[in-house]
Specification:
This protein has helices at 6-16, 20-37, 40-49, 92-107, 146-165, 172-182, 195-200, 202-205, 208-219, 226-234, 239-252, 258-280, and strands at residues 52-54, 64-72, 76-84, 114-116, 120-125, 128-133, 139-142. It is an alpha+beta fold. The two termini are 33 Å apart.
């Protein structure tokens, strides 16, 4: 029964001083995450340690984000938070998407988050690693896999919202929230985030082996295993080609001009070919 999570959310809401509408969304978001990942205690622990902060900025461009700041005590630690930069003037479904999207980043970054090397350290956000200097904690580099991270995260956001739309409850608040979700989507929710990039990778995203294996490695923090696993099925160095092609396409997709359009088409075809080759070599699609 999803109603059992109400007192847990109320306690978290009291701790972080959440307004009622955020708590009401979390009433359905928490059980949906548990259904999706089957990790109840882990999900609750994440929600208990990652505050949702309403900034009051009402920024339409960067509507929400998850951040993890490094700091040092006896060891390197991080301070995590989800920031809602658009809160008051926003459609219901977009607020729900933003909140789930950023929570999903956070949950998929929680385990094996910090990797310390001799002269640097890395903080993981899903598939993405940000490199920092050990001396002054300044950012050195961010790897290109953040685009694939966003695509996977957007796909999972869609799944979680569809789970919410199909939940049932006798609790009036939860029932009304589920009703609002159902009436905001057309049977199957498709997130507007990274829509064209998801389209070019759709065959890959529809592949059960690709999505489920990558999801499992990502939530457990074993992202260094992904390239070896992918290339083993692909037959050669394909993972970095996928990551680099997505990054290049993301960099130019909003630019204009005939040569840009030709480049976009070329990169899109390349993504489709990568997807086709992985699927051809994969036993379980």
């Amino acid at each position: 029964m999803i109603e059992k999570y109400i007192p847990i959310i109320d306690e978290i809401g009291l701790k972080f001083n959440y307004p009622d509408n955020i708590k009401h969304l979390l009433y359905v978001i928490l059980p949906a995450f548990v259904i999706k990942y089957n990790k109840e205690n882990f999900i609750i622990n994440c929600l208990n340690n990652i505050p949702i902060i309403i900034t009051g900025k009402e920024n339409p461009k960067i509507q929400a984000l998850y951040v993890s700041y490094p700091y040092k005590e006896d060891i390197i630690k991080t301070k995590k938070a989800i920031y809602l930069n658009r809160y008051n003037n926003i459609p219901f479904l977009q607020l729900l998407d933003n909140l789930i999207h950023e929570l999903n980043h956070a949950i998929n970054s929680y385990q094996n988050e910090i990797i310390v090397k001799e002269d640097c350290f890395y903080i993981r956000t899903g598939l993405t690693k940000i490199k920092y200097s050990l001396n002054d904690f300044k950012t050195i580099d961010k790897n290109k896999s953040f685009v694939l991270e966003e695509i996977i995260n957007s796909k999972q956001t869609e799944t979680i919202i569809n789970i919410i739309a199909n939940m049932k409850s006798d609790n009036e608040i939860i029932k009304n929230t589920i009703y609002a979700v159902k009436n905001s989507i057309n049977n199957n929710y498709v997130s507007p985030a990274y829509f064209s990039l998801k389209y070019y990778c759709q065959k890959l995203l529809d592949n059960k082996t690709f999505l489920l294996t990558l999801e499992n490695l990502r939530i457990n923090g074993n992202v260094d295993d992904i390239e070896y696993w992918f290339d083993g099925i692909y037959g050669e160095k394909g993972y970095q080609e996928l990551v680099n092609t997505l990054f290049e396409l993301k960099e130019i997709q909003n630019k204009k001009g005939f040569l840009i359009e030709r480049k976009i088409n070329k990169l899109a075809i390349k993504l489709i070919k990568i997807s086709d080759r992985f699927n051809e070599n994969c036993n379980l699609k």
